[in-house]
Amino acid sequence: MFYLIAAGQKLIINMWKEKSASPLHLLHAGFGVGSFIIPLVANPFLAIVADDTVNSTMTPNTTAPPTTTESDHEVYLRQSKIEYAYAIAAGIVVCVSVVFYIYQFVGQDPSTDTEQKNDDGGKPDENKSLSFREMINPATCAGGRCLYGLEIFVIVFLFFFQSTGGERVAGKFIRAFSIDYMHFSNDDGSYLNTVFWIAYTCGRLGGFVTANFLSIRVLVMIETGGCLAATFALMFLGTSGPLALWIILPCLALFIAPLFPSGIGWANYHINVTGLAISIFLLGGSVGGICYIKLIGFLYDNYGPKMYIYTLLGFGGGGVVIAGVMNIIGSQHGSRFEWDKRETNVPVTVDSKKQQVIEFDEVDEELRKKK
Q1: What secondary structure does DSSP assign to 271-301, as a single string?
Q2: Tell me: the pLDDT tens digits for 180-227?
């Protein structure tokens, strides 16, 4: 799965270049769609208990095995066949991956690559094979600026750490919080979880539209600012009643959803995002998800369900700070597409003048010899 995400993002960046922010949002909208469709696919294959006398709170997308004791044996009307649900999901992934193989073998024309190099004034192709030293060198992605490339790598790593961690907390514990603290029924908690993921998908589809009209720098600040505003509203109004939770949490999902694709789009705006760079960013998201889940699990068990709200508030505040630092660092050199054009055009002009001087010198030399 990790490699599929990296491959899909790199493919879009190669195809759309400076206009890749909008398609990236559409790509990641598939995650939200799968989040509420796959549980529906899995539901027919889950076990059915004849006497469901024990109600327990579970996090979304997980199914706890029924408990059995010496005095209370549960009777199953149907045994679990969850492996069929996994097989269906895996089959869909295999079918989709065929597209990547087709693109790899027939999607690139060598003659087109050669013409593109000539049109760019001999500028090296971004897709050329790199040595291991070039792959791990931040300067490779930042036009030879090692320190600038390292700064971008670190700050984007932290951005994905924060955004993915907050997303995991909001999505995984929403049902548990609504049942344990707000006393929702099990069905209402599940419905709230479904509404959250529908709003999440709408947020990424909305990012697909807004990325066409707004700068990626502005978009990142709007999204992180929206997360902070929603977590503040959750802090002061979210516990006032069930209606507030039904309104605020979907709003939070709308702003959390586009953070991940916007982070990739922001990085691509400032540096040449290679496959290794995408892997580093995804690693930041994975580490953030692990750390945040461990943190909320500890706080939830030891200090109560309301720590869900406090954790989300910390996520919102940290996201705004990191986004601000990102734009300050990015402003040092601006868009990579702008300085790519400057580096491409300036040497060509100088070389052409030198070539003209050389040609005139050769003509003068021939005239002198004739005289």
Answers
A1: S---HHHHHHHHHHHHHHHHHHHHHHHHHHH
A2: 999 998 888 888 988 998 898 888 888 778 878 888 899 999 999 999
Burial class for 49, CB neighbours closer than 10 Å (0-12, 13-18, 19+) = middle
Contact in structure between 296 and 169 (CB atoms under 8 Å): yes
User: Are β-strands 76-78 and 48-49 bridged in parallel, bridged antiparallel, or unpaired?
Assistant: antiparallel
Of 204, 210, 327, 208, the residue nearest 269 (C-alpha)? 327
More confident: 214 or 135 = 214
Burial 327-355 (b: 16+ CB within 10 A, else e): bebbeebebbeeebeeeeeeeeeeeeeee
- Are 335 and 269 in contact, with CB atoms under 8 Å apart? yes
- Alpha-carbon distance of 15 to 99, in angstroms, equals 15
Q: What is the DSSP letter of 1?
A: -
What 3-state DSSP class applies to 78?
A: strand
If you ran DSSP here, which 8-state letter would residue 109 be given?
Answer: -
User: Angle 280-281-285 (CA atoms, 0-180°, nearest 5)?
Assistant: 115
Please report where in the chains the tokens 């939830």 appear, as a residue: 300
Six token digits for residue 26: 């559409």
Cα–Cα nearest to 266, from 334, 210, 166? 334
Q: How far is CA 47 from CA 68, 79, 118, 278, in A?
A: 14, 5, 63, 39
First CA to last CA across the chain, in angstroms?
A: 76
Nearest to 227 by CA among 306, 311, 284: 311
Q: What angle do CA 266, 264, 148 make, to 5 degrees?
A: 55
Q: What is the pLDDT of residues 4-30, one digit of tens each?
A: 566 666 666 667 666 666 666 666 666
CA–centroid distance for 322 within its chain: 16
Cβ contact 123:342 at 8 Å? no
* CA–CA dist 287, 220 (Å, integer): 21
